[in-house]
Amino acid sequence: MFDCLVTIYTSLALLDAIQRRALKIQPLDQRRKVGALTLLHRMYHQEAPALLNSLIPEAYKVRRETRLSKSQHSAALELIKSDTVSHRRSFLPSTVQLWNTLPQEIVDITDRQKFKSEVNTYLSALRQRSVR
User: Fold this and answer.
1) What's the whole-model pTM score?
2) What is the pLDDT, as a whole number, of residue 86?
3) DSSP for 49-110?
4) Rounded distance, CA 9 to CA 4, Å?
5) Distances in Å between the alpha carbon of 119 and those of 74, 78, 116?
6) Neighbours of 75 (CB within 10 A)
């Protein structure tokens, strides 16, 4: 039975790789990040439902000047403190952390489709650099 499951998993992984190459589909992890950043972008620009807009953290406050604080873009948000790994991986804490790493020129984009496209390009470039 175990051999059968391994064979099925291997076959599905191969099929997934072939489809990704043929259709030029981004990895699931990247698609999730793009979707989360797009929702946070909507929240930041007050284009999401009011309940979601109310959840957005405050703007990042420089408490002490460091290399990190100097490199933050103008739309940086306060990081959400997490005591557990599961909370740290949830939507707001993980997406705010990713949002704060975006370059200023991407954060300044107000058009949602253009933002989504640029974020996808940016994350693809990061992934390519990490593979090398």
Assistant:
1) 0.77
2) 94
3) -HHHHTTPPPBP--SS--HHHHH--TT-BPPPP-SSHHHHTSHHHHHHHHHTTS-HHHHT--
4) 9
5) 17, 20, 5
6) 17
